Amino acid sequence: MSTQTSIRTSEKPLGRDELAQLVARDIVPGSFVNLGIGQPTLVSNYLTEEQNITLHTENGMLGMGPAALGDDVDGDLINAGKIPVTELPGASYFHHADSFAIMRGGHLDICVLGAFQVSATGDLANWHTGAPDAIPAVGGAMDLATGAKDVFVMMTLLTREGVSKLVEQCTYPLTGVGCVTRVYTDKAVFLTGPDGVTVRETFGCTFEGIQELVPLPLKKAE
């Protein structure tokens, strides 16, 4: 999959919808894609018909459309995050086990997930922070992280306390090892892998400013 090689900048940090638009534009036409619970579900609202993207949801559907609104809401037609969705022509439904076979079998080109932490080498931690009311198990995220050909992460760069979520090594329990290829945040887009982290573009911040926020060596896209 091709990647952007020249750093770009914008004047201000991106909002959730602006970030979803960016991710949607970066998805290669013809891809089979899973959008994780939370912020990643917004991406479905910005995919174009020309891209011919087929969306998968782990509760058993291929051909999911944008979020349903108004009279389009059907209580029986929801995504894995229980959000009402629409269906596109040719949509299909299947058993939960078959859905996981799609995930585990390497049939998804991209999954887009949220995260609590991503390491410099692309390790993903997105299911547990140690909070007493946290979800009790990793769930389908581990299948997506392992089975998808590319894993994109959408998250804010900093926690509420101002600590970077992009770290040298994850301190939370891992969902997947070395699986994340891109990290989309409100302040920058990062490319991750065995050779370290490259800043592809920044939003409302210079490359030097991003380096001050992130506690690991960064490279600038050339």
List the secondary-structure elements in sequence, H or E: EHEEEEHEEEHEEEEEHE
Q: Segments where pLDDT lies below 50 for 5+ residues?
A: 1-5
Average pLDDT for all residues? 92
Number of helices: 4
Provide the structure class: alpha/beta
For the biggest sheet, the summary is: 11 strands, mixed
Number of strands: 14
Measured as a percent range, the helix fraction is 10-25%
List the helices and strands and how they pair.
Blueprint: E1 8-10, H1 16-26, E2 32-35, E3 54-57, E4 61-67, E5 85-93, H2 96-104, E6 110-113, E7 117-119, E8 124-125, H3 141-147, E9 150-154, E10 166-167, E11 180-184, E12 188-191, E13 197-203, H4 207-213, E14 218-220
Parallel strand pairs: 1-13, 2-3, 2-6, 6-9, 7-10, 9-11, 13-14
Antiparallel strand pairs: 3-4, 4-5, 7-8, 11-12, 12-13
Helix pairs in contact: 2-3
Short summary:
With 222 residues, the chain is an alpha/beta fold.
What would your notes on this structure say?
It is a single chain. Helices cover 15% and strands 28% of the residues. The protein contains 4 helices and 14 strands. The strands form 2 sheets. Strands 1, 2, 3, 4, 5, 6, 9, 11, 12, 13 and 14 form an 11-stranded mixed beta sheet that branches. Strands 8-7-10 form a 3-stranded mixed beta sheet, with no helix packed on it. It is globular and about 45 Å long. A hairpin with a 3-residue loop joins strand 11 and strand 12. The N terminus is likely disordered. With 222 residues, the protein is α/β, with parallel strands linked by helices.
